[in-house]
Design brief:
Two copies of one chain form a homodimer. By secondary structure, chain A is an alpha/beta fold. Helix content of chain A is 40%, strand content 17%.
């Protein structure tokens, strides 16, 4: 005798089984930019309760939003992408998601299985593309739609990485031969850290005293992780650093002030020069972002590295255990100083914007930071601000800040989201503004408009060209003509305004925070 | 005794040798979006006379422009892309370039060779990405910069495809151990077609009479190729078709009216149903764009296909030889009819825009067509227009039309360029507008603003959902909010206007053609 479930599933298409299995596993959002080979999935979205589709005008908006969503929600969203070129368009932000250890599940429609061999125009090597950012899962059978779907989702959560699930159009359309898997939201507990690793870390940190360093990343930058780290530092004398580009760092609200390991390798080497031990908690051994002649790739002195917990392990628990072991008391650590608020007439610079924002930040805000102009000064200034969460660009593929802010706003609609964004990187995925408008996402976008790829000016100087020739100057300038972000934002349906002083920024920022939906402020620098 | 050349080259960096070798081989434009690992190349651009750098705000603008450039100039431009993520961002238009058989040479900087093993944040599998669109060449030695560079360029020209040349940052910066190769612009003659293939084609076409079909692609769609095809048709009774999405088709000016093979496979099958022979000239066997249940993937009846010339062979010469063999006289073929110009008060539809544009086209214009709304009607209408060149989206990765128009304008600054662009696809690479403004490219951008992914509405209906549910409707709509292209264009520094009738379009189009630099017209439909 057949159960109700079996009777029902016999009428379900592969697309429906895929989406129902995902929804059953706790997936509730799909950032989508579909095409012809995903039409059965698009149709099935309307038959899958609890799965919300969010359209992006470009795939890199979808993948960056899925990354931002995962960082806040701590679970995977789906993306829905069209064939190889759709996946290719989203690869840059999947690269960032991989470096952020964000679970993301890309669903990619492929040609009907019987059509693939004919090398139609849109055919390309999807598996090769998927392999550059994570694992590739393929549904090649009507009987395995649900199981392969669940494997792709669980794999993303277990590895904390990117899964790409390829499903040919015919297998989406045909009736599936396997029911959706039972509902059981994915909640993979992180593997624990061995007691010996904790003991050894305690031993080495105690021995090192002020020459001990504890480097935090991943879940080590949670509120609980940083509190434990603060206690460890108080008990052992160790110095604390955060990885340079955290996927998600809790900040402010009395947390110990933890600097990021400096970006330029000579400064990072200097910061670690006298270390006797560098304990890694949720982070890999620190290496130079780029190789520069005469500067080592490895930033920690030889023989000093001790791995306490990898990013996919239970980093928080390892830190708590370590704090207990070193006999750290649960006492408040010395807080950082809130910077002085700049005068209303002050011009907008990285420093004034950083200090102002640290003072104005609403409680529980999420700040998606991309670009150096305001990013570094804000991070330094905000240690003593109200509690907030910072997301940074983890993989260096620029165009991540606006999509991540969008995804964060979808994950936490009750929290204010601020995108602190440089203009050069913002232009890669400015299309994210439109989805913010459509979804009425409460995002305040602050554009640091200096009309240059300033980081490249610095790099030209480091490479021996402090005064670039005309072509080099032009390749690092965003002037001629200057981008008008106010016009751009309005084109995408986002209200926008201009600010040139701290006072103007204050008015615009306050208005924007109170208004519903997104608002963009061009900070002319 | 050393020659001057040898003395000079001892002071040249790898970057200079690379660029000088490219310039010596006839490369004169580099569409660039560089980063830190390309700084020595950026510096070297100012020391390489005759190599012009053009900045794109997104890599897919650079690669699409290089494709458009190659289609018009018939030689490769360089792109300059930053590491794996930069290449990934440009892959979609490289996919189109691959399908267009356009020679394109991507120069990608990599981490310093001694830094690569440390898996720094921006490290990824560049070779795997490059392999999905063409050949991967790597400079791994100071002594082979020039020879590997030349090989990458020649390979792109010989295969008519995409080469990716990866050069680590240290090998760009260090003095090269090989001088730039001597100047000798690349002019690879296409391999000829064997006499037997031509004779057999002649035999089969003569035997087939009106059941003969000659399908043209690649260089077969040159003026000379189409003229020969017209004579062949006149002599044998064969029907002529163009491939559905030509990279470059000469049109108008008395050329025989040659329809494109229909896009939807059931119509293409019907068009070829009674064929006794389908002769392929510069094109592969025609296959369905997508697989639909019950419709064959192969469009030509079994056993009818005869390959006259592959796209990388001398297609023109094969057609001329075939025309001579079938005894075709050099007489004018019956021309097509120019469509009636719509009344000024007429609303803007695909049909009215197509007919109007066919009448208004300036002589020798290049029309970059992307999107179905106006693309198909214009192509059908323009057979009897003044001589012009049409570029279409060859690979189906959307976001190709605006970059291709930019590249065409750089390749042929003396020719008027028109981008006939649908709104959905235009939004993928709207950043191309800024480079048009910066380079003062004479491009008139016509946006068919219907605020929908209309092709997907059609596909939903074909997949059995003529009335999409709310999520499907939303995923195929570009409304809520409607994109304002006039604002977007102004944001990127491009003057813009609106048109809702044929009369308004006529005024705006005429003004735009006369003005210097780009102009965008939003055609509200």
């Amino acid at each position: 005798m057949k159960t109700d479930r079996h009777i029902a599933h016999e009428e379900l298409t592969g697309a429906q089984v895929l989406l129902e299995t995902a929804a059953g596993r706790g997936v509730s959002v799909c950032f989508a930019n579909p095409g012809t080979t995903e039409m059965p999935l698009v149709t099935a979205l309307d038959r899958t309760p609890g799965l919300r589709a969010v359209l992006g005008l470009h795939e890199n908006v979808c993948t960056g939003a899925a990354d931002g969503y995962a960082r806040i929600a701590r679970r995977a969203a789906l993306t829905l992408l069209h064939l190889g070129p759709g996946l290719a368009n989203g690869l840059a932000n999947l690269h960032n998601a991989r470096r952020a250890h964000s679970p993301v599940v890309n669903v990619v429609g492929d040609h009907a299985s019987w059509h693939l061999a004919f090398d139609a125009p849109l055919t390309s090597d999807i598996a090769a593309l998927a392999g550059t950012v994570g694992a590739h899962h393929e549904i090649d059978d009507r009987a395995s739609v649900a199981s392969v779907t669940r494997r792709a989702i669980d794999d993303a959560h277990e590895r904390l990485g990117v899964s790409t699930l390829v499903v040919p159009a015919d297998l989406q359309q045909l009736t599936a031969q396997e029911p959706p898997l039972e509902e059981s939201p994915c909640a993979a507990p992180r593997p624990g850290v061995g007691g010996e690793d904790v003991e050894q870390a305690a031993h080495r940190l105690r021995a090192a005293g002020s020459r001990g360093v504890l480097l935090l990343g991943g879940a080590g930058l949670s509120r609980r992780g940083q509190s434990a780290a603060g206690r460890i530092a108080a008990a052992t004398g160790a110095r604390l650093y955060s990885e340079t580009f955290p996927a998600r760092a809790e900040r402010g609200g009395g947390l110990p002030p933890i600097d990021r390991l400096p970006y330029f390798p000579e400064r990072a080497v200097a910061a670690l020069r006298d270390a006797a031990v560098v304990v890694l908690a949720g982070v890999s051994e620190p290496v130079a972002y780029f190789g520069y002649e005469g500067i080592p790739s490895r930033l920690a002195p030889q023989g000093t590295v001790h791995r306490l917990a990898d990013v996919a392990q239970d980093v928080e628990q390892a830190l708590v255990a370590l704090a207990e072991l070193v006999g750290a008391e649960d006492r408040p650590t010395a807080g950082a100083q809130q910077p002085v608020e700049p005068a209303p007439g002050a011009a907008l610079t990285g420093q004034t914007v950083g200090a102002a924002l640290a003072n104005w930040l609403p409680e529980n805000a999420i700040v998606s930071v991309e670009g150096g102009t305001c990013g570094y000064p804000f991070y330094s200034a905000s240690a003593a601000a109200v509690p907030h969460t910072v997301l940074t660009n983890t993989g260096g593929a620029i165009g991540q800040g606006l999509p991540a802010a969008l995804g964060a706003a979808i994950a936490a609609p009750e929290r204010p989201v601020i995108a602190l964004q440089s203009d050069g990187s913002g232009l890669y995925t400015a299309q994210a503004l439109w989805t913010m408008a459509r979804e009425s996402a409460d995002v305040v976008v602050l554009i640091a408009a200096n009309h240059a790829y300033n980081v490249l000016r610095t790099e030209l100087a480091r490479h021996g060209s402090p005064e670039p020739g005309p072509q080099a100057a032009r390749l690092t300038s965003l002037g001629e003509p200057a981008i008008d972000w106010v016009s751009l934002a309005r084109g995408f349906g986002v209200p926008a305004s201009d600010a040139t002083t701290v006072g103007e920024l204050c008015v615009a920022f306050t208005d924007a925070l109170w208004a519903r939906g997104p608002h963009l402020i061009q900070m002319t620098m």
